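REVIEWER CHECKLIST
Item 1: Sequence provided? yes
Item 2: Single chain? yes
Item 3: Sequence as submitted:
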Amino acid sequence: MVDIGRIMDSLLEQVDESLKGMKEAKNVEEKLQYSNLIKNLCDSFMIFLDLIHELTYEEGEEIE
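Item 4: Structure as written out by the authors:
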């Protein structure tokens, strides 16, 4: 079975590494590449958060 937590941890590690790379980028093009990469990684992370939400809360169930 797929370990969602492990995948999410890996995505966050990649975001962290990409942020560090962006900090060291020398020009605007490199920063833009890192920016796009970080956006894609965060979008992927959100997919897993949505999946966890769907698995945790059934339709019609209130969230406290």
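Item 5: Key structural point noted by reviewer: The helical segments are 4-24, 28-56.
Item 6: Recommendation: ____
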